[in-house]
Amino acid sequence: MSFPGQSLQRAWHLVDASNQTVGRLAVQISGILKGKHKPTYKPNKDMGDHVIVINAKDVSFSGGKWKSKVYHWHTGYPGGLKQRRAEELVEKRPEEILKKAVLGMLKRNNLRHQSIEPRLRIYAGPHHPHIAQLPSSTDPIPVVPRSRSSTFHFGLNKYTSGPGGTGKN
Question: Is residue 157's pLDDT more than 60?
């Protein structure tokens, strides 16, 4: 007999967003929020963990997106279409850039709105009020590399050509 509520344990993850690309970081965070890193993952169940993101004001974009990327929203009133560039948004509300990127990678359904969104906590600076929830030896999640030409090969180093690899597929 299985008891689905008894076996679910939620962990707390700390993510340092300083000098990380927004999209690559959002992919990591959305997977943790959904629970895809767990062997018991089910797409229709709430299996994910809590994520605390610090230093959200220090994220980076690739290319010239600081000036060219525009965020749109509507106030609900006639003529209420608003827009703001990324460099303006990071000055006013730096958490919103990363929050919009992460939530844009999740399906818009009741699971997201009621369960997943409240578990994402983003802070502009290095301080957060969730010290008690994190274990004492918590290190931030490792940084995702910016290019595939580095030594970070997701455990597939033996299949790459170069030192230590055979170069065969």
Answer: no
